[in-house]
Design goal:
single chain, 255 residues, alpha/beta, Rossmann fold, seven-stranded parallel β-sheet, 7 strands, binds NADP nicotinamide-adenine-dinucleotide phosphate, Oxidoreductase, SDR_fam
Length: 255
C-alpha cells in the first residue's frame, strides 16, 4: 500500500516547533514533499533536517503569515521547487495574553487576529490560486476547541479561532466543485511549547492538572495526535470530507 501522502507537495506553516513540527515529520513519513514556513527560520531548519533524515524532499521559507507578500512568496517557492501544490496545513498561530475583554487593547486584538485569522486568509488565497492551476488540492486550517467554546480572558483568541472556522467553510463551499477541499482541525489542549510557556507562569500554578481534568480522556493531547489527523484530512482517504469542524480534543467539546 502506498503511503497516504505519496507524491503530494504540501505547505506547513508554524513548522519550527509544536504541532507544525510534528505535522512535518508525520507528512514526511507519509510520503509528502514539504515547504516548511515559520518566522523562526532556525527552528524551521531544525525541523527540515529531521524531515530530510526521514527521506523527504523539503524547502524552508522564512515567512510571517500576517504579511501577504511573504505568504505569496512561500507558495511561489513551493511551486518553483516542486512544480505544483497539492496540500497545505495552515497552522501558524499565537496565543492570547490573558487580558479581560474590557481591558483588551486594539494592538493586542490585532496582534492575535493578524496572525491567527488574517494569516489563514492570506494562506488560503495564495494556496487556492496555485491549486486551481493544477486541478485541485486539500487544505487543513488549525482552529481550536476555543473556536467553538470560550474561556475567560481570551476574547481575541476565541474570536480568531471562530473566524478560522467560518473562513474554512467559506472556502470549502466556494471551491469544493473545483476540486479543493478545506477543513478545520479543532485541537483540545496539546503539549507544545505554547502550552508549556503558559502553565510555567507563576500565576497559572495548578492550571496543568485542571486542564488535564477538563478533557474526558484525562490528559492533554500530543502534537503527533493532531499531525496524524492532518495527514488523513490531506490524503485522498478523506476525499468526501469538506467544510468540516474536525475535533481532535479528547472529548473536550463533548462536555
Ligand atoms: P507553538 O508551539 O507556539 O508553535 C507555533 C509556531 O508558529 C511557532 O514556531 C511560531 O514561531 C510560529 N508562528 C507564530 N506566528 C507566526 C507568524 N506570524 N508567521 C509564521 N509563523 C508563526 O504553537 P502550537 O501549540 O504548536 O500551536 C499551533 C497551532 O495550533 C496554533 O494555531 C494554535 O493556536 C493552535 N492550537 C494549539 C493548541 C495547543 O494546546 N497547543 C490548542 C488549540 C489550537 P515563534 O516560536 O517564533 O513564535
Amino acid at each position: 500500500m502506498k503511503p497516504m501522502l505519496d507524491g503530494k507537495v504540501i505547505v506547513v506553516t508554524g513548522a519550527a516547533r509544536g504541532i507544525g513540527r510534528a505535522a512535518a515529520y508525520a507528512m514526511a513519513q507519509a510520503g509528502a514533499s514539504l515547504a516548511l514556513a515559520d518566522f523562526d527560520e532556525d527552528g524551521a531548519n531544525t525541523t527540515a533536517a529531521q524531515v530530510a533524515r526521514l527521506g523527504a524532499r523539503c524547502v524552508v521559507v522564512r515567512a510571517d503569515v500576517s504579511r501577504e507578500e511573504e505568504v505569496a512568496g512561500l507558495v511561489n517557492a513551493a511551486v518553483a521547487r516542486f512544480g505544483r501544490l497539492d496540500g497545505a496545513f495552515n497552522n501558524a498561530g499565537i496565543e492570547q495574553r490573558n487580558t479581560p475583554l474590557h481591558l483588551l487593547s486594539e494592538a493586542q486584538w490585532n496582534a492575535v487576529n493578524d496572525v491567527n485569522l488574517k494569516g489563514v486568509f492570506f494562506c488560503l488565497k495564495h494556496e487556492i490560486r496555485a491549486m486551481l492551476e493544477t486541478g485541485g488540492g486539500a487544505i487543513v486550517n488549525t482552529s481550536s476547541a476555543l473556536g467553538r467554546v470560550a474561556i475567560p480572558n481570551a476574547a481575541e483568541y476565541c474570536a480568531s479561532k471562530g473566524g478560522v472556522l467560518g473562513l474554512s467553510k467559506a472556502a470549502a463551499v466556494e471551491y469544493g466543485s473545483q476540486g479543493i477541499r478545506v477543513n478545520a482541525i479543532l485541537p483540545g489542549v496539546i503539549r507544545t511549547p505554547m502550552i508549556d510557556s503558559l502553565v510555567s507562569q507563576p500565576q497559572f500554578a495548578g492550571l496543568l492538572p485542571a486542564l488535564e481534568a477538563r478533557h474526558p480522556i484525562g490528559r492533554l493531547g500530543e502534537p503527533d495526535e493532531i499531525a496524524q489527523a492532518a495527514v488523513w484530512l490531506l490524503s485522498d482517504l478523506a476525499s468526501f470530507v469538506n467544510g468540516s469542524e474536525f475535533s481532535v480534543d479528547g472529548g473536550y467539546l463533548a462536555v
